[in-house]
Write a structure and sequence with these properties.
Blueprint lengths: L2 H18 L11 E6 L3 E2 L4 E10 L5 E9 L5 E6 L15 E5 L6 E10 L7 E11 L6 E12 L15 E2 L5 E2 L11 E6 L2 E4 L2 E4 L4 E8 L12 E8 L4 E7 L4 E6 L5 E8 L4 E9 L5 E9 L2 H7 L24 E6 L2 E6 L4 E7 L11 E7 L6 E6 L4 E7 L4 E7 L5 E5 L5 E7 L4 E7 L5 E8 L7 E11 L7 E7 L5 E8 L15 E6 L5 E5 L6 H10 L11 E7 L2 E9 L4 E9 L11 E10 L6 E8 L4 E8 L1 H5 L9 E7 L4 E5 L17 H11 L11 E7 L2 E9 L6 E9 L3
Parallel strand pairs: 2-9, 10-16
Antiparallel strand pairs: 1-3, 3-7, 4-6, 4-8, 5-7, 8-9, 11-14, 12-15, 13-14, 15-16, 17-18, 17-24, 18-19, 19-20, 20-21, 22-23, 23-24, 25-26, 25-32, 26-27, 27-28, 29-30, 30-31, 31-32, 33-40, 33-41, 33-42, 34-39, 34-41, 35-38, 35-40, 36-37, 36-39, 41-48, 42-47, 43-46, 43-48, 44-45, 44-47
Protein name: DUF4397 domain-containing protein
Keywords: Signal
Organism: Actomonas aquatica
Length: 742
């Protein structure tokens, strides 16, 4: 109600009372009046106070009960809460505020209302009030004073938010907590302003996408502190990557851990101080963040350890979630992985391990991961390394003769050198774009052992793509050149098959076959195709270019066949139409992108006559892809006789050459190792027997003169020569080249 209206109401009432009771002198009425507020302080940022006005003990014949309240400058009325007087000011009204009852309550009158005050109050403020009372026995309005309310400004203490910066995160990182603080200790609220993240309370969860995340922290004030200024933090979410942990055990040894991208299984490299044994632990992180040990390899005996780590064996244990723990582990590992901290305990040793996750954006983040490498041009040997994001590296080298390892640093260029306490130096180079690693072990003797490999987080593409065999063929007096090959996988593969004779003369072969013919048979012995002269076929010419094979003259009498063959074993027979001579049987993977296909050429076995001069049986193959390939190479003669083949070579020998015509491996009798350079590790008879079983090759008899070897080869072209161990010997022999599955 406006002030003028309220004044008119009181004036009218007073005149009426004066006329009716002019000759009387009643007693002045009294009442108990209070005005209270919910706080005696005002906040620096402005706010709202809640008042309660109460009147009691007034006469029973009270006919008018009205309040007049004067606010401090700049203050204004908010609203009446609940029931109140019949006449009241409008919201926003400034002083004076006036209330009146039309129907006065019988016993007491009380109501609650709010008042808004401005920000920036720096001195004491006051609110005063009066109650105006009129009764039936007292016609004049009586004004009753109410004790004034004083309000002092609340302390205006600074309240800055301390919001630590947030490091870059991987898209596959787990949830994490924010920990901003302020002097007031009041609750801080967080908001994701933008980016691939969600927030609940102070817990941030990444969505799995990459990008830039902006998070804002806010905090309101109270009677002692002003509201804090908002603070924002920005961090980047980078593509998902392996999680790497480095730490130190309670007995002072270093360890390193890798968990593949998106997996719950991990690998730990460590060392037991009391025994000086290195070990490799495979573990699984459960849903409750506890750690379950799955497999433990103690590397205490070099010879036995090498059989476990001969070729990329760690890869088999990675990325297999929900596995069954192995029974009877040598040590009991228990612990948790929570909040980026790995905590483990080795019960039997009383040793604890504590490691922290490496940040996503460290200087060596682009090369971080677990790398598994094989010793080149040897039958066994593995160098495994875990590279962190902050320039840390942990490596373990295992051969039949030595186990060495330790921690060190790796440069942003990818180079590292680790000097071990066994006088072995591990030098390496990681290439970020290809995720490959190469290097050498410098052994105590000074010999160097080269190794090469790949990140276990990268799909391997190593395979054999081009297979060939050269031999002297005379079907009138001996056997055709028979080449067997196997196509793996479940879908057909395009292959180019060639029998080259006359074109060999262009490469200096003086006894080249003039007119070869090729016939292909499937596993049942059914003829698939028979081709004599290739005749300049356009499709064959295109496939020749695609595979990188040497070209054939359009009018040559060489034979060639392009086909899509279903998975399975095949034999390719090369015979001579007319004069005998030297010919090559070639099998090429003619797919547009061989490395992208699972189906592949997995082995070759070629049988032919070994004669003097140019009659050496030669097999060729190409290893392609991003990592070394471990192969089994066999040269059999006596074993063929056991299978019913007549006229076999009684004592074959093998030699393997690289593209530079360097001898990289060789063998005469399969049970006797034949090293071709100092420090070369050759396969034992037991390892060869295991490999035979693995690839499905027929067994070699104990004491036989057949030749066989295992060698790990880097990508490139290779040839295998099968010749007689004794000069002048001739006979039928078989070259076999198998890729050993890993």
């Amino acid at each position: 109600m406006k002030s003028s209206l309220f004044t008119a109401f009181l004036f009218s009432a007073t005149l009426t009372v004066a006329t009716s009771f002019a000759d009387t002198a009643p007693e002045t009425p009294t009442a108990t009046v209070t005005l209270t507020a919910d706080s005696t302080e005002t906040l620096a940022g402005g706010g709202t106070l809640t008042f309660t006005a109460t009147a009691t003990d007034y006469p029973e014949d009270t006919t008018v009960l009205a309040w007049s309240i004067t606010l401090a400058e700049g203050w204004s009325f908010g609203e009446v809460i609940g029931d109140g007087p019949s006449i009241s000011p409008s919201s926003g009204t400034t002083s004076p505020l006036e209330w009146a009852y039309i129907d006065v309550p019988a016993d007491s009158a009380a109501f609650t209302f709010t008042v808004n005050y401005p920000e920036g109050i720096s001195t004491d403020s006051a609110v005063t009030a009066e109650l105006i009372l009129r009764t039936g026995t007292f016609p004049s309005a009586t004004t009753l004073a109410v004790d004034a309310l004083a309000f002092s400004p609340a302390p205006s203490l600074a309240n800055p938010i301390d919001f630590p910066s947030i490091a870059a995160k991987r898209a596959n990182d787990g949830s994490f907590e924010l920990a901003a603080t302020s002097p007031s200790g009041l609750p801080i609220t967080y908001t994701v302003v933008s980016g691939p993240a969600l927030i609940s309370g102070n817990v941030v969860t990444l969505t799995g996408a990459t990008g830039r995340v902006v998070i804002r922290a806010d905090q309101g004030g109270d009677v002692y502190y002003t509201a804090a200024d908002s603070v924002t933090r920005i961090f980047n979410v980078v593509p998902a990557a392996p999680l790497i942990y480095f730490g130190t055990t309670s007995d002072g040894t270093d360890f390193a851990v890798q968990i593949p991208t998106g997996k719950t299984t991990g690998t730990l490299f460590g060392r037991i101080a009391s025994t000086q044994q290195f070990y490799i632990l495979t573990f699984q992180v459960e849903d409750d963040n506890s750690v379950t040990a799955l497999d433990l390899r103690l590397l205490g005996n070099p010879a036995s350890a090498a059989s476990d780590l001969a070729f990329n064996s760690l890869r088999k244990s990675l990325g297999q979630d929900e596995r069954t723990p192995a029974a009877d582990l040598a040590y009991t590992f228990t612990g948790t992985l929570t909040g980026g901290v790995l905590s483990l305990n080795i019960a039997e040793l009383g040793v604890t391990l504590t490691g922290n996750v490496e940040p996503a954006d460290g200087p060596t983040a682009d090369i971080a991961g677990l790398y598994e490498s094989s010793s080149l041009n040897s039958a066994s040997g593995t160098t495994s390394s875990i590279v962190g994001t902050t320039g840390k590296v942990f490596a373990i080298a295992v051969t039949p003769d030595v186990i060495a390892g330790g921690s060190g640093t790796i440069a942003t260029s990818g180079t590292f050198s680790i000097s071990t306490d066994t006088a072995v130096t591990i030098n390496g180079q990681v290439d970020a774009p290809t995720t490959t690693v190469t290097g050498t072990l410098i052994l105590p003797s000074g010999e160097e052992d080269a190794f090469a490999g790949l990140s276990t987080n990268t799909v391997r593409t190593d395979r054999m793509i081009n297979l060939s065999t050269r031999a002297h063929v005379d079907t009138a007096t001996g056997s055709p050149l028979i080449t067997g090959f196997v196509i793996g996988g479940t879908t057909p593969k395009r292959v180019l098959l060639r029998a080259v004779g006359p074109t060999l003369a262009d490469f200096g072969v003086t006894t080249a076959m003039a007119d070869p013919q090729v016939t292909v048979y499937d596993a049942t012995g059914t003829e698939v195709a028979s081709v004599d002269n290739w005749g300049g076929d356009a499709a064959v010419s295109t496939a020749t270019t695609l595979t990188g094979a040497f070209t054939l003259p359009t009018d040559s009498l060489d034979a060639a066949y392009l086909a899509d063959l279903a998975p399975g074993p095949y034999t390719m027979h090369v015979t001579n139409n007319g004069a005998a001579g030297v010919a090559i049987a070639e099998i090429y993977d003619a797919s547009e992108n061989p490395n992208s296909e699972y189906q592949r050429l997995v082995n070759i076995s070629s049988r032919g006559d070994v004669t003097a001069g140019e009659g050496v049986l030669i097999g060729g193959f190409v290893v392609t892809g991003n990592s070394p390939k471990r192969v089994l190479v066999r040269g059999t003669g006596p074993a063929l006789a056991e299978l019913g083949v007549t006229g076999t070579l009684t004592n074959p020998q093998l030699k393997v050459f690289n593209a530079d015509d360097q001898l990289v491996a060789g063998n005469d009798d399969w049970e006797t190792a034949s090293a071709v350079f100092d420090g070369q590790r050759t396969a034992t008879a037991a390892e060869l027997t295991t490999a035979n079983d693995t690839v499905g090759a027929f067994a070699l008899a104990a004491g036989s003169a057949d030749a066989a070897l295992i060698v790990t080869l880097s990508p490139g072209s290779y040839t295998v020569e099968l010749s007689a161990a004794t000069s002048g010997q001739t006979g039928n022999a078989l070259i076999e080249i198998y890729e050993i599955p890993e």
